[in-house]
Each structure stands twice: as structure tokens, then as C-alpha cells.
Amino acid sequence: MSTVVRGVGTSAFGKQSHRGAPALLRDAVTEALDDAGTPTTGIDAVFAGTVFDGPGTIQRCLQTLGIVGVPVVTVENACASGTTAFHEAVEAVRLGRYENVLAVGVETMTHTFSSSIVPEDTDREGRSGMAMPSIYGMAAARYAAEFGTTPEQLAAVAVKNFGNGVHNPRAARRRGVSVEEVLASRMIADPLTVLQCCGMSDAAAAAVVGPARNAPDDVTVRATALRSGGLWDHRSTKVWGWDVVHDTAAAAFETAGVGASDVDVFEVHDAFTIGEVVTTEALGLAPLGEGGRLAAAGVTTLSGRSPVNPSGGLLSRGHPLGATGLAQVAEIVWQLRGLTGARQVDGARLGVVETMGGGAAGIDGNGCVVAVLEGAA
Amino acid sequence: MTATTSPTTDEKPRRDAPPEGYDPRPRVTDGIEPAVVGTRCTACAHPTLEDVERCPVCGGPTRPTTFARTGTVFSGTVLRIPVGDRQPPISLAYIDLDDGPRVLGHGQDPERVLRPHERVTLVGETDEGDPAFAADGESR
């Protein structure tokens, strides 16, 4: 028996700390339950993702919906927390533990931080001031030196994703930008400018997962894979994150029996423009070092061969860590149902979600999840 | 920012010291030729920044060591936003020490991006206690 996504939902994304996690989570879960046709009393178990929201956040939120008296497991896996919750929900159904599982993620970034994320001071690199923009800035600098990846190629990713996000009413930043505007914006971590970095935002997202039930709007989960990164040290020739995305995607593709070229639409982790470049290579859309050409050449645009981030991605939607992965799942589900209007990828039937999170020094990422989803024929 | 060895007297509290005083950063030896301290596997020779008892690669026993002062930049950037109490600019780079691990270091000059493949030398610690590197040819 296959596992399906029965319903999805999200709150709006943006700076809205005044609303608090319970209200944001209610928005997402109520929409997902209605979409699935599942009453709150029908949920057997909950897997949740959040990184910085405090202890008890998920139960504090769920009780306001009357979702009580069931197993609730909260996971933290950096930027991949939401998709890790999704992966665990799918596995729980696949293994027969539960039949109606809620996967949910929430993050109130602007409640936790006054500006950007402060790195973990018990980490040897976080303690040395290694903020996330700097690790991606280093990846971009390495790509420029090794492969000749240009600032214009990086900016093309932002132009594409912001352009897609204009058509996403839930996105936090909805305005088109030009290559010139991206490159002229404030420098954050050389060579990455502020319009190449995702913004802080607050949101929740959810999905209801269960066994296949012959409902036409359900989306089949062909595969999910979850891995932590390997050792990343002086022996590593690739930039941080490349290998863990590659290996996780390879495992998911093998289970699903498909390859990257079979996929109609991707939602990937573009917290920074270089992140999409590296990820799309690691997923198999371009040879090593040539990912910079994809957006600039139109390969990953809505009408391109392999559309990436039709939602606007993290760059446009925002990146509330726990919510991000399930918002990616929601976008792919809507794409596979043909519901996304001006940002719709025509005829999309097979979609992929990829999320990679980091912050622990010495490894190639804390965790990566890749999911392969299929819509009805 | 100065790149001097840590004083043993007249120490002032670090600006961003955590309450319990745990400092996970690599230790740098005092002296005119400072070096990063770590461990090396006695079986496979894998170098590690952490003070580990067993090699994370092969599981073999380790012994304490210091690593070469010189190395090559894997990549670097200058961060231009505050990070906690730290104020920009902050020059950060991954340095592959010649006989040792990849270590996150600070550029001695906070405005200068340390470029991939540049040769660098450990010159001590920053005022905040981070390993500090200067590019070859850069005044120290």
C-alpha cells in the first residue's frame, strides 16, 4: 500500500511575530485538515519540526485545535526540520504505525531574533562568528575561483525566484528584481548581496499523510530519504553541502525508480542563490561546476526543461526554518494538482522537494531530506 | 584587531563569552610561532580539531599534536553584518593546514577577503580568541 499526501496547508509568510506560533500553526493545520477531509479528532499522531521556537511549542499550539491525547514528536534538523517531520510521518504510515498522521512545522523567527540568526556558541565555528551567510559566501567564492561562476549567474537565480514569487500570494517578498538591482544591493557576505539571501519571516506549514485511499486529489509519496552529512574536512574537494544533497537525492531517486530528468518540478533549498546552484548540480541537473548556467540559461525557469522553485523559493517566500520544508511540500502538491495559477508548471506530474540544513561544524550539513511526489495521472 | 597570542595575565573577559565558560574553538598555543592544537590518529594519521579519544574515521587511538602554521585557503569571505556581539567587517576563511585539518580562521585584516588557493600563516588569535591568519606577503 502506497503512502499519500491527503492535504496541505500553510499560513501566510512574513514578519508577523505579533500573531505567535499558535495562530500561525492553526492557519496551516486547519487548511491541511480541510484539504484532507480529516477532522481534528481523526489525527493519530503528529510529527513536528521547529528549530528555535521553545520547548512545548507544538503541544502549546495543537491544544488550541483540540489535537490532544496523541503521540507528538518534535524534531530539530536545522533548515530541514519540516521535511524531517514529513519524512518521519511518511515512514510511520509506510510501516503501518498510524493511518492519519499530521506533519507540521512552525518558526517565529522575528520573535527569536532581532536581526539575522545568531550562530550556536557551543559549536566551534558558530562560536567563531560563522553565520550562515558566510558559509554560503565561501561556497560562492569557491565556485567563482574553481568554475568561473559569475555574479550575474548567481543573480539570475534571485531574478527567477523573485519573479516566481510575485505570483505566490503567501510569499513574504513579492516583487520582481533585475540582475543589476540584485548585484547593486547591499553586500552581506562577499560575493552575496542582500537580494541573494532569504529574509527572516514567521510561518507554519502542514501536511496530512496516510495510506492510499483512492481519492483523486491525493498525491503519492514515491520516496523520501533522510541523511546527515558526512565528515567535511581537508579531504573534501566539494563545497559544503554538495555531497549530502547528492547522496540523499540518489537514495530517494533509487527508491522511486526515477532520475532527475524525469522530474517535472522542483522545490529546493535556496536560502542563498549559491545554494540553488549547488543543489541543482547535486540533484543531477548539471555537471559539477556548471550549475551556475541553469537559471541564466532558462533551464530552471517555469517554462524551462527543469523548473526550480516555482513558489519563489526561500528567497521570495521567506525562511521560517521549521515551516520551510512543509511549505515546499505544499507547493509541490499544489503544482501536481494544477492549482498554482500564473506560477503553474504545465502538466506537472512528478515533483521533488529538497531541503538541507546545517550549522554543525565538521560535517557536510546537519541533515538533508529529498522527497519524490507524484500526482494523479 | 590584533593578532597576538593570548595573554596569561591581565586577561579581560571575552565580549561574547558564554556563561559557563565552555569554549569549543580550537586552542592556539602561545609563543612567537603559534600553532593550532588538536589530535592525530596513531593508526591512520587523520588529524582532528576536537580533543577526541578515538579517530572519527577509523576508530583508532589518537594522540595530542600541534599542526603546521601554514596552509592554503579553501575559501573565504568578508561578513558585513553583525554576528551576536561581533561587529562587521569579519574576514572568515576555511584554511587547509599543510599537515592538518581544515580550520575556520579569521583574516588578520577584517576587510580583506582571503581567496581560494592563497597561502596563509597562522599569526595568533584575534582579540576575541579566534585563530587568526595572514596571507603571505601581508604585513603582520
Explain this structure to me?
The complex is a heterodimer of chains A (377) and B (140). Chain A has 377 residues and is an alpha/beta fold. Chain A has two domains: 128 residues, Peroxisomal Thiolase, Chain A, domain 1 (3-Layer(aba) Sandwich), CATH 3.40.47; 223 residues, Thiolase/Chalcone synthase (Peroxisomal Thiolase, Chain A, domain 1), CATH 3.40.47.10. Chain A is 35% helix and 18% strand. Chain A contains twelve helices and eleven strands. Chain A has a nine-stranded mixed beta sheet with strand order 3-2-4-7-1-8-11-10-9. In chain A, strands 5-6 form a two-stranded antiparallel ribbon. In chain A, strand 5 and strand 6 form a beta hairpin. The radius of gyration of chain A is 19 Å and the shape is globular. The two termini of chain A are 18 Å apart. The model of chain A has no long low-confidence stretch (mean pLDDT 97). By secondary structure, chain B is mainly beta. Chain B has one domain: OB fold (Dihydrolipoamide Acetyltransferase, E2P) (Beta Barrel). Chain B is built from no helices and eight strands. In chain B, the strands form two sheets. Chain B has a five-stranded mixed beta barrel. Chain B has a three-stranded antiparallel beta sheet with strand order 2-1-3, with no helix packed on it. Chain B is globular and about 40 Å long. The N terminus of chain B is likely disordered. At the A-B interface, helix 5 and strand 5 of A face strand 4, strand 5 and strand 6 of B.
